[in-house]
Amino acid sequence: MADISKEQVKHVAHLARLAVTEEEVEQLTKDLGAIIDYAEQLNELDTENVEPTTHVLEMKNVMRKDEARQWITQEEALKNAPDKKDGQFRVPSILTE
Fold first, then answer.
1. Distance of CA 59 to the CA centre of its chain
2. 0.70 exceeded by the pTM?
3. Domains of the chain (ranges plus CATH)?
């Protein structure tokens, strides 16, 4: 197990503003030690010819290309509007006094 002390657990709990009991400190010391031991297993791997990556999965842009295209005119957009004024859609007011 990695060397992690109860004082370190208490210090981290204090920094995180966590109230922990002595029993919880005991358990956290064991648990965090086991986690560190598990992470240290990575040091045993031969990573000499492994290229560093920033993501485990391939990242690709799923957005379409931004291409200029012809759009409808203001008159075409408003032709089926039930109510319009000054080139804009007119809707009922939702603000009350």
1. 15
2. no
3. 6-44 (1.10.20.60)
